[in-house]
Write a structure and sequence with these properties.
Number of helices of chain A: 14
Strand content of chain B: 15-25%
Number of strands of chain B: 12
Helix content of chain B: 40-55%
Structural class of chain B: alpha/beta
Shape of chain A: globular
Oligomer: heterodimer
Number of helices of chain B: 11
Radius of gyration of chain A: 20 Å
Structural class of chain A: mainly alpha
Chain lengths: 332, 334
C-alpha cells in the first residue's frame, strides 16, 4: 500500500511525483524551444480546458484502479450525460435540474456497474464493457442519433466564462482534484480504498466491506463522467451521442502515467493530475509542432511504454524496500 | 427474490426480446420470398449515415422490401468485413454500402459477386487503385465536395482582401486516419491554391483530428495559440463536427468575428446559422436522403425488374449560408 501521504498535510512532493513534475517541465521546455508560444498563459489554459473531461474521468479511474477495478463505461456515460443535458434544456428544464438529473444518471449507471460486480460477480472490466454498450445505445436513442444543440446562454457560459481569468471547466477540474485528492489521502474511506486494492481478503478480515466501497467508487466515477459530459456539452454548445470515444483510454493512461499501479493498492490523485497534464501537454505540443498524425500515434505509444517501464522499476523498488523492512523486522 | 436474480432475469428478458425482434425468416407467410436489403455504412452513428440509412429504408420499404438491415461498421475495416460476411450468410437480396477503406473494394465486390448479391456504393465508391469503379455508385465525389469548399473559401478570401492580408492564414482540419475523408481535405487545399495561387504555402496549416467536435476543438485551438500573429483564420475541415470544433476554438481565442469557417454537410451548420453570430458562415450541403433514397431505388429496381443500375449517379452539392439555408435544406433546416 502506498500513496496515502499521512505524514504531511499535503505530502505530494514525494519521490515519484518529483520525477513526474520534472518530466512535465522537460516536456514544456522541449516544446517551448520549438514554439515560443507553447509556454504562454493562453496555451496553459488551453491544455487545462482540453484536459477537463479526461481529468474528471481520470479521478474516478484512479480510485477504481487503486481498489483493483476499472470502468470502461465512462465514455458512454459522459456522452449520455451531454445528450441528456441538451435534451432536458431543449425541453425547458432549468439549468440546476438539468445538471442534477444528468449527474444522477451517471450515479445510477455507476450503481448498476457495482451491482453487476458485487452481486453477479462479473469482472469490472467485463461488466462495464456491457454497460458501455447499453448506455451508448441510450445516448443515441434519446436524441435519435442526432446532436442536440444548446441555445441556453447561461448553460453555455459554464463552458466558456472565466473567473479571475481561469475558465470555469478548469476551476471545476481543479476543485475535483483537490476534493478527491484529500478524500483519498486524508480520510478513512480513502485508506480503505488502498486496503481493498492491496488485499481484498485481508480487508474483509479487517472488518471492511469491499462491496460497499466498490459501489461508492463506481458511483463516484459515474457522477464524475457525467459532470465531464455536462461540461463538454457546455463547451461545444451541443450534446453529441458519438462523442468521448477513447476518453477511457486517455484517462487510464493518465492515471498509470501518474503512478497508479494496475495491480491495485498504489496511486495518488496528485500523481494522476500530473499524468493527465503530461499527456495533454504532450498531445498539444505534437499538434503545435505540426507532427504528422501517424507519428503522433507512435509518440503517444512510446510515452505509455516509458510510463509502464517506469512503473515496473518503481514496483521492483517497492518490493525490495518491503523485503528489506521485513528482514530488518525479523532480525529484531 | 435476490437482486442478483432480478438482474439475471432482466438481462435474460432483454436477450430474448432482442432475438425475437431481431431475427426472422426470409420467407413471407404466403410463401413468396421477402426482399431484404442490407445497408452497411462506415459510420452508422453519425448523423449523415443515420439520415441516409433512414431514407434508404423508407424507399426500399415503399418499393416492397420486407426488411432493411442497417449495419454500423464503426469506421473499422475488420467490423466491415464481418458485416459483409454476415449479410452473405443471411442471403440478403442486395447491399447498399459506404466502405470505411476503399482499398477493400476489390475484396468486397468479389465476395458479393461470388454470393450473387448485387451491391451499390453510396457516398464513397467501390473502386480499384486506378479509380475505376467496381460497382455502381451514388453520391458526391469526396474530392469534388472538398473542391466546392475550397472554391467558396478562396472566393471569400479574395472578396474580403484576406488573400493578401499578412494577418490571415488557412487551417485545414484533416482526418488522415480515415481514408475516405482524405480526398475531401485534399480537394479543399488544391482548389484553394488553384484559385489563390499567390497565397503563401507557409500560411496554410494542417491539424489532424478523429472526426469528433472535441478533438477538432483541441487541434484547432493548439494551432491558433501556436500562431498568435494570425488574427483572421480561414478554416476548412474533413467533416461538419470538426468545423464546429474550430468555431468553438475561435470563440475561445476571441478571434471568431474576424475569422471564417466552412462546414461540410450542413447538418450542424444549420444550428450555427440560427445564432446571432457564428464564425461558421457557410457549409457545403448535400442531402443524405438523396443519396440514401436513390441508392435504394436503383437497387430495388434491379432486384425487382433487373433494370440495369447506372455506374455513376451524382447528387448535387450546394453551398448554404445564413441567408439561404432554410430554402435549400427545407425540413432539414429545422
Amino acid at each position: 500500500m502506498n500513496g496515502q501521504g499521512n505524514k504531511l498535510p499535503l505530502n505530494f512532493l514525494r519521490g515519484d511525483n518529483i520525477v513526474l513534475i520534472m518530466a512535465l517541465m522537460v516536456i514544456v521546455l522541449l516544446f517551448s524551444l520549438f514554439n515560443s508560444n507553447y509556454a504562454s498563459g493562453s496555451n496553459i489554459i488551453n491544455i487545462l480546458v482540453a484536459a477537463s473531461l479526461t481529468g474528471l474521468i481520470a479521478i474516478g479511474e484512479t480510485y477504481l484502479i487503486i481498489a483493483g477495478m476499472i470502468d470502461m463505461s465512462v465514455p458512454s456515460v459522459a456522452a449520455f450525460a451531454s445528450v441528456m443535458a441538451a435534451v432536458l434544456l431543449q425541453n425547458g428544464f432549468g439549468i440546476v435540474l438539468t445538471i442534477v438529473f444528468a449527474i444522477v444518471a451517471g450515479l445510477m449507471v455507476g450503481y448498476v456497474n457495482a451491482l453487476l460486480v458485487n452481486k453477479i460477480k462479473l469482472q469490472a472490466f467485463i461488466a462495464t464493457l456491457a454497460t458501455m454498450s447499453i448506455v451508448r445505445g441510450f445516448a443515441y436513442i434519446i436524441c435519435d442519433g442526432k446532436p442536440v444543440y444548446i441555445m441556453d446562454s447561461t448553460f453555455i457560459n459554464i463552458g466558456k466564462e472565466e473567473i479571475l481569468g481561469v475558465p470555469i471547466p478548469v476551476i471545476i477540474l481543479m476543485l475535483a482534484f483537490l476534493i478527491f485528492g484529500l478524500i483519498l489521502a486524508k480520510t478513512r474511506f480513502g485508506r480503505n480504498v488502498y486496503v481493498i486494492g492491496g488485499n481484498k481478503v485481508a480487508a474483509r478480515l479487517a472488518g471492511l466491506n469491499p462491496e460497499r466501497i466498490n459501489s461508492v467508487l463506481f458511483m463516484i466515477t459515474g457522477a464524475l463522467s457525467a459532470l465531464g459530459g455536462i461540461i463538454l456539452a457546455a463547451r461545444m454548445n451541443s450534446g453529441q451521442p458519438a462523442s468521448c470515444v477513447g476518453v477511457d483510454f486517455d484517462a487510464i493512461t493518465g492515471a498509470v502515467l501518474g503512478g497508479t499501479a494496475f495491480t491495485g493498492g498504489t496511486g495518488t490523485i496528485f500523481g494522476t493530475l500530473l499524468g493527465v497534464l503530461i499527456m495533454q501537454s504532450f498531445n498539444t505540443g505534437l499538434i503545435m509542432l505540426n507532427v504528422p498524425i501517424f507519428w503522433q500515434y507512435v509518440a503517444r505509444g512510446a510515452l505509455l511504454v516509458i510510463a509502464l517501464t517506469f512503473d515496473y522499476f518503481r514496483k521492483k523498488n517497492r518490493e525490495k524496500k518491503l523485503l528489506r523492512e521485513s528482514m530488518a523486522a525479523m532480525a529484531k | 427474490m435476490k437482486i442478483s436474480k432480478i438482474i439475471a432475469l432482466m438481462l435474460g428478458l432483454v436477450l430474448i426480446s432482442t432475438m425475437l425482434f431481431g431475427c426472422g425468416s426470409n420467407t413471407a407467410d404466403n410463401g413468396k420470398k421477402k426482399v431484404v436489403i442490407a445497408g452497411i455504412y462506415k459510420a452508422g452513428d453519425q448523423v449523415w449515415f443515420i439520415n441516409e440509412g433512414k431514407a434508404a429504408e423508407k424507399m426500399a420499404k415503399d418499393m416492397g422490401a420486407a426488411d432493411f438491415l442497417f449495419i454500423d461498421a464503426k469506421m473499422n475495416p475488420d467490423t466491415y468485413l464481418q458485416a459483409v460476411d454476415n449479410v452473405i450468410t443471411q442471403k440478403v437480396d442486395g447491399v447498399i454500402t459506404c466502405i470505411p477503406d476503399q482499398k477493400l473494394s476489390k475484396a468486397i465486390t468479389d465476395k458479393l459477386k461470388a454470393a450473387n448479391i448485387p451491391v451499390i456504393a453510396a457516398d464513397d465508391a467501390l473502386q480499384d487503385e486506378n479509380g475505376t469503379k467496381l460497382a455502381p455508385w451514388v453520391g458526391i465525389n469526396a474530392y469534388k465536395i472538398g473542391q466546392t469548399n475550397g472554391e467558396w473559401m478562396a472566393n471569400y478570401a479574395m472578396k474580403n482582401g484576406l488573400d493578401k492580408d499578412p494577418q490571415a492564414a488557412v487551417l485545414i482540419l484533416t482526418m488522415d486516419t480515415v481514408s475516405s475523408c482524405v480526398p475531401r481535405t485534399d480537394g479543399e487545399q488544391s482548389k484553394f491554391k488553384e484559385l489563390v495561387p499567390a497565397f503563401p504555402d507557409n500560411k496554410i496549416f494542417k491539424a489532424d483530428y478523429n472526426g469528433e467536435t472535441d478533438k477538432g476543438f483541441s487541434a484547432a485551438s493548439s494551432i491558433f495559440i501556436a500562431h498568435p500573429e494570425i488574427k483572421k483564420w480561414l478554416v476548412m475541415s474533413g467533416n461538419e463536427e470538426g468545423a464546429v470544433g474550430a468555431v468553438r476554438a475561435l470563440e475561445q481565442a476571441g478571434i471568431d468575428r474576424s475569422s471564417c469557417v466552412i462546414g461540410l454537410g450542413g447538418y450542424l451548420a444549420k444550428d450555427e446559422f440560427k445564432k446571432d453570430y457564428s464564425a461558421m458562415q457557410a457549409a457545403t450541403y448535400f442531402a443524405s436522403d438523396d443519396v440514401g433514397g436513390i441508392s435504394a431505388k436503383e437497387l430495388m429496381e434491379y432486384i425487382l425488374t433487373k433494370k440495369e443500375i447506372p455506374m455513376e449517379t451524382a447528387v448535387d452539392a450546394k453551398i448554404v449560408t445564413r441567408e439561404n439555408y432554410q430554402d435549400v435544406m427545407g425540413e432539414y433546416a429545422k
